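Weekly structure sync, notes
Attendees: PL (lead), two postdocs, one rotation student
Agenda item 3: pending single-chain targets
PL asked that the sequence for the first pending target be pasted directly into the notes so everyone works from the same version. It is reproduced below exactly as submitted, 244 residues in total.
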Amino acid sequence: MKLTIIGQWGGYPKALEASTGYLLEHDGFKLLIDCGSGVLSHLQTHIEATDLDAVLLSHYHPDHVADIGVLQHALLIQSFLGKNKRTLPVYAHREDQHGYDTITYKEFMKAHEYNENSSLSIGPFKVTFVKTKHPVPCYGMRIEAGGKSLFYTADSAYREEFVSFGRDADVLLSECNFYGEMDASNAGHMTSLDAGNLAQKTNAGKLILTHLPHFGNLLQLVTEAKSIYNGEVLLAEKDMEVFI
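Predicted structure, written out during the meeting:
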């Protein structure tokens, strides 16, 4: 599997960058995980919008879904130009019915429901889900293909349930919206120490910190996570490519 960071910012995108969005590829299949503000623009430096085979959404906060509407328009316009003949499947939960209802668009995009008990086959990927601790319904996900696994926490405060769900994942893509000395739990987010603790307990092969804060020295997040986790810690950056 090849993971490309399209956007890594929490809340809103830094200038000339994007909020949450990740491109996961395997055997030619292209899966976009979350589609926040600025994601479509930066995605096009890697692939065309019409090259996407599926989209997977964790929840409906704007920093994770703001570009769904413009992706719909991209598919519409490309159809006028004769370059889009497919319906793009988008996998999402229905616990926010309004959010779910905004996904299906003409013949160009179709919503497909998942829940905590779902086990989906999306192209070459097997996807399972875990409920997170966030102000709105949100799901983390474990994605497996080719004998490798990725655990994406999505947005969440630390949950002990993540340990068994994410055990031995080759890559832990963990939100890290707060620094170690801060209390992130009430906001439904994790600190660098939470992420490091989760990586250590799950025996993750590698930790990537993402959903980053807009303040402080981001390298401090890495140092703090490394104080607990013995493995490799990376700070997500736009266009970073990781082979899993």
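Discussion points:
- The chain has seven helices and 14 strands.
- Residues 49 and 74 are 7 Å apart (CA to CA).
Action: rotation student to compare against the earlier draft before next sync.
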